[in-house]
Specification:
Length: 465
């Protein structure tokens, strides 16, 4: 089917060129020169939409990538295979791993001298090969993609059937699995990675070309107009925000902002920063159709449960734990395209990667929050945040009532939950207090262990020893 489409495409180009004698081929060019991921998938969708609007005759991918996410590559190769417009690729330097899958999906492949294509083994972030179930999924994708380009069947005089694939599925599989042997190509022990000349020899590339112009010339397209994808400022911002690394930073701001806000009275900058980071996290994912309504609602529901646990229900129990679980779930699932669950039977790996981003970022936010709350006001680079001058008592300064200085050792009860600040009742009078360590439940018997600047520091009475 793919070969028939290319034949019809070539005939139409020839007829139109003869009739009009002018530029007749509109070539839409876009780049894949980064890691294969959400950004590359988004650019691909935009490119094909724009190519259709321009009524392009050909889409040409200018590629240079070391690979990336299998899920994103699968989405891109599916887009190419289903395209009514022929798709070519010019490999400028590398089409490794996920890049090889995308290249094999294209109708024609042209490679620059010194370029490489192959090495499609699925690996984790440390570069270690994943278990065989992941390799099996990648092998099947490589095989089916190669098979989509069709085959020639010949019957010999002796009655034997000879099948010649236009792109050999066995070779495509051997780009993934080093255990596979392909007679005359590789004996096993290493995955296949083709140079330009090897790719041409074994039918995985049409020709060698120095640049896009030469690739079009060798593809018998001599008169053409090129329209190149131009990313708008909005596209660049969205591509930046959907980067997994940026997701990690935004999650740290969300969690860190909430932590700082709970440590300080009133509503201020930390909560505003957390709210802005939440908007920047979810908005691009929602607009791109990656995050669904229910995933956003899970996150919001988790925040509500945490607030209820802190300000309404004493202690920390089911509501708080459920809220934390919902927040983590919402942040994790929002990063994953829901098509992933339909297209990839091994989606668990993608879920675990997203979960790792959320958990690690949250942990770093807590650690940073604890450290930052102690260091922020002592920072010499931010002298305006706190009064650094010491007003000594012997110099006549005193902002602590004498009664406070005599309260160490006094006992009472926690009138509110101390998280770590709250209110205690001592001899039927209420005082602002702060837990010396951890949180103190409402109603707990407490003892004042020290005072500082009109602030009582307390701990549970049973810790007095």
């Amino acid at each position: 089917m793919r070969q028939i489409k290319l034949f019809i495409f070539s005939v139409l180009l020839t007829l139109v060129g003869i009739s009009y004698g002018q530029d007749t081929t509109l070539v839409y060019v876009y780049d894949i020169n980064q890691e294969i991921g959400p950004e590359a998938w988004r650019n691909t969708q935009n490119a094909f939409n724009e190519a259709q609007k321009h009524d392009a005759d050909l889409v040409l991918i200018h590629m240079n990538t070391y690979g990336g996410l299998v899920t994103a590559a699968d989405s891109i190769r599916t887009k190419i295979l289903n395209s009514e417009i022929p798709v070519w690729v010019f490999i400028d330097n590398n089409a490794a791993s996920a890049g090889a899958l995308i290249s094999i999906a294209c109708d024609s492949v042209y490679m620059r001298p010194g370029a490489n294509m192959g090495a499609a083994t699925v690996v984790n972030q440390s570069g270690k090969a994943m278990p065989d179930k992941y390799q099996s999924f990648m092998r099947s994708m490589m095989r089916s993609t190669a098979e989509s380009h069709g085959k020639d069947t010949t019957i010999t005089p002796e009655g034997d059937t000879i099948i010649k694939w236009h792109r050999d599925p066995a070779i495509a599989e051997a780009m993934v699995d080093p255990r596979l042997k392909v007679e005359g190509v590789i004996d096993s022990g290493k995955v296949i990675s083709f140079t330009t000349s090897e790719a041409i020899k074994y039918g995985f590339a049409e020709a060698e070309a120095e640049n896009i112009a030469e690739a079009l010339d060798k593809g018998n397209i001599n008169k053409y107009t090129i329209v190149k994808q131009r990313l708008s400022t909005t596209d660049k911002i969205i591509n930046f925000l959907i980067n997994p690394f940026v997701h990690g930073i935004l999650i740290m701001i969300i969690i860190g902002g909430l932590y700082f806000e709970l440590q300080s009275p009133g509503i201020g900058f930390p909560l505003a920063a957390a709210a802005l980071a939440t908007l920047l996290y979810f908005a691009p994912l929602y607009l791109e159709g990656i995050a669904e309504n229910w995933e956003v609602l899970i996150f919001i529901g988790g925040i509500v449960l945490i607030m209820v646990e802190i300000f309404v229900i004493p202690g920390f129990g089911v509501a708080g734990i459920s809220g934390i679980a919902m927040v983590i779930t919402g942040l994790t699932l929002a990063m994953i395209d829901n098509l992933e669950f339909q297209m990839n039977p091994n989606y668990v790996d993608t879920v675990m990667q997203s979960l790792a981003v959320v958990v690690i970022s949250s942990f770093l936010a807590f650690v940073g929050g604890i450290w930052g709350s102690k260091k922020l006001f002592d920072n010499s680079f931010l002298p305006g945040l706190a009064l650094n001058n010491v007003q000594e008592t012997e110099d006549g300064f005193s902002n602590v009532e004498s009664s406070f200085r005599n309260m160490t050792g006094r006992k009472g009860v926690a009138a509110t939950m101390l998280r770590p600040s709250g209110t205690v009742e001592i001899d039927e009078e209420h005082y602002d207090a702060r837990a010396e360590t951890g949180f103190i439940e409402v109603g707990t018997r407490i003892v004042v262990v020290r005072t500082s600047s009109s602030q009582l520091y307390v701990e549970p009475e049973d810790m007095e020893d």
